Amino acid sequence: MIKFTKMHGIGNSYIYINCFEEEVFNPSKMSEFVSDPHFGIGSDGLVLIMPSETADFKMRIFNADGSEAEMCGNATRCVGKYVYDNGLTKKTDITLETNSGIKDLELDVIDGEVVSVTVGMGKAELEPQKIPVSIDGDRVIGYPISVMDKEYEITAVSMGNPHAVIFMDDIDSLELEKVGPLFENHELFPERINTEFIKVIDEDTLQMRVWERGSGETWACGTGACAAVVAAVLNGYCKHDREITVKLRGGNLKITYLQDGTVIKKGPATFICEGEVEVPPIAR
Fold first, then answer.
1. Mean pLDDT for the chain?
2. 66 marked as binding residue
3. 86 among the known binding-site residues?
4. Which helix (DSSP H) or strand (DSSP E) does residue 191 occupy?
5. What pLDDT is recorded for position 14?
6. Is 26 marked as binding a ligand?
7. Which of 26, 88, 4 lies closest to 282, judged by CA?
8. Of 271, 284, 283, 273, which Cα lies nearest the Cα of 3?
9. Which Enzyme Commission number(s) are on file for it (predicted)?
10. What CA–CA distance (Å, rounded) separates 115 from 269?
11. Ligand-binding site membership of 99 (annotated)
12. Does residue 224 have a known ligand-binding role?
């Protein structure tokens, strides 16, 4: 048996395991198991909270299909809540090691519990080769791509993981389960891609649906919301240094894209439940 906690950041839910106390021998297979809503627990993936030699804590995150992700903004906030609420730290400013670098977390505490977290997400990467996107040039802004005989325009951004952002007038009727996998596995994206479909409400508000590589459509994606705001500024819909509200299916995030390229993200982190689960033979 292994102890777990289920948490969500505006609907983006993961299973969190405290690796200061527990050991996960095969995190890829464990993620596949716990993510399954029928035979496991049900989630968008698995997050391991671990000791770090370079930061206060370390996070490893695995998608529902078992692949390891570089970064997840919503999971980052939940890790901040977990370590404070469970007494692993008393600090409200902590550092977190991820596969895309060390992130700075500022915890908002009310009555002894973390209710929201502000994360310094680092600088957005726009160079195609570093995202990576198989397109020449210095940036990919409004680049035409054909999917299901329809032309879309993508803006490519990395927030430690790759994103293709598409601006549309109508995202509610979008058949995301059909087009999402075609973007994710398109030949232009050698490491697959997260795809954000964005409706611009006004210069301070965006609406977003997201297809996450390895997980499908999720109710929220923190790095995707950051990429969406960066793309909105690059395309002239929004401005630098303004707090932009990104409305996702699970709730809202507040994103600021600074002039120096740094992105700041603020949003809630919510406890769902905790318990024990038997590790299946395939994950031992």
1. 94
2. no
3. no
4. none
5. 96
6. no
7. 26
8. 273
9. 5.1.1.7
10. 6
11. no
12. no
Does residue 269 contact residue 253 with C-beta atoms inside 8 Å?
no
Task: Yes or no: say if 23 and 284 are a contact pair by the CB < 8 Å rule.
Answer: no
pLDDT digits (tens, 9 = 90+) for 128-151: 999 999 999 999 999 999 998 899
Predicted confidence band of residue 179 (pLDDT cuts 50, 70, 90): very high
Q: Using CB atoms within 10 A of its CB, is residue 54 exposed (0-12), middle (13-18) or buried (19+)?
A: exposed
Active site residues: 72, 221
State both tokens at 199: 């409706």
Angle at 40 between CA 35 and CA 44, to 5 degrees: 15
Q: Looking at residue 56, what DSSP letter applies?
A: S
> How confident is the model over 47-72, as a mean pLDDT?
94
Say what the pTM is.
0.83
Distances, alpha carbon 220 to alpha carbons 67, 87, 142, 174, 264, in Å: 19, 27, 23, 16, 16
For 190-224, what is each residue's pLDDT tens digit?
Answer: 999 999 999 999 999 999 999 999 889 988 888 99
Domains of the chain: 2-121+269-283 (3.10.310.10), 128-260 (3.10.310.10)
In this structure, the strands spanning 162-167 and 150-158 are antiparallel
Tokens matching residue 242: 């303004």
Select from 151, 130, 127, 155 the least CA-distant residue to 141.
155
